[in-house]
Each structure stands twice: as structure tokens, then as C-alpha cells.
Amino acid sequence: IMAAITAVPPDPAAARKAEFQKWAVHDPARPLPPVVDPGPAGPPVSAPADAVVLFDGRDLAAWEGAKGGPAAWKVENGYMEVAAKTGLIRTRQGFGDCQLHVEWASPAVPVGHSQERGNSGVFLMDIYEVQVLDCYDNKTYADGSAASLYGQYPPLVNVCRKPGEWQTYDIIFHRPRFDAAGAVVSPARFTVLHNGVLVQDNVELTGPTAHKARPPYKAHADKLPLSLQD
Ligand code: MG
Description:
The chain is mainly beta. The protein has one helix at residues 12-20, and strands spanning 63-65, 74-76, 79-81, 89-95, 98-104, 120-124, 128-132, 167-174, 177-178, 184-186, 189-194, 197-204, 224-228. It has a five-stranded antiparallel sheet with strand order 1-4-13-6-7, with no helix packed on it. A four-stranded antiparallel sheet has the order 5-8-11-12, with no helix packed on it. The termini are far apart.
């Protein structure tokens, strides 16, 4: 049986781009993602056999400080914690395309509001940030929410758990491709699940993530360190 195709199916990527173009960076008028309770945290997940384990709860051997040398963050009771004024940390190994599992918690006693509250970030290739922020009962600009692609794309929903509770990000990242002249062949793409809920669905970045700016791509290596914001 043949059926006539009367309409071209909507293109989610095109619709997303059209929506994106309506908003300036950190636009306070941009709608906030709706709050959805993700349910309680489950037990930590096991790493698959082919995973590169960047932190096993014991030491920061896979990491270095922002200026090289040992990473100075605190390690205790199976977790690492930002140590004040020690700066970001980055992996010794470089990565390009990857699937990344992250478990994080913001301070149990929240301090400050908006971007001051538990602000960190997972920077793929040291350039492209998935925002980490305590967005539980804490309003901020939409493109700076937890699990936003900072300054560009808010998450589809806000599924933050309470401060102090463990949360997960599962990030599927495709690095950008550049031609020999440095032009973009394909942009960086993110799919992100926050606490098991889809919050970024194959989203293309316009370039590096930045504060109050949307800079264009600059050609870079195929593999670069992953960094965590202080
Ligand atoms: Mg951040």
C-alpha cells in the first residue's frame, strides 16, 4: 500500500537552531527548563571493561593541575573535592569523541545564589563546557543551568537533586571536525543525560562555550585533555 507523503517531517535540529537564534547569551528572558524530580539516586554504576577510569576514588594520578604538576584537589572517602584557590584540574590523557560518566554533588549547605552556588563544569577537550551548578531551588539564567551547554543551550528539563546528593551526567560527545584550512566540517555535538533523564539531544555547538560570549570555532587537535572547573 502506498501512502502519499503530504508533509516533510519536522527537523529537530533545524527547529532547535531557529529557537536558539532568538536568544542572546545569558538572556534573562529565555525560559527556564521545567523542574522534574528524577527520583532518588541509585547505587554507583560499574565501569565497563573498556573504559578509561579517570578517578577510582583513591587518587588523582590521571590528573594534573592547571599549570601542570600534581592536581591539588582533596581526595577522601572515595571522592575528590575542589580545594579552594587551586584552580581547575585536567586529565593527563587527551580525548576526542567519547562517552563520559560523571558523578558529582554540590555542597550540602548551599551558599550564594544563581551562578555562585556550586558552580563547576565538565570541559570536553578543555573547551566545551557542560555546566555543573546547584540548580535545586536556585534560579539562574537558562543557558547557565545545570547540564546546560554553557551560554548556548539550556537543558530540556531541570532534574537537579538536592544539594549534597549525588547526581550523574552521562555525556556522549562528538568532537568537531576541521578541514586542512581550519574550516569547520562538522561542529561539536552533545547528548547528555542528567540523573538518567535526557537533557541535551544531539545538540550542535556554535563554537567554544564562554562567559558572555559565543566565540567561533578555532581548529584544534583531535584529542585534548578533559578538565574540571574549580
Ligand atoms: Mg561552570
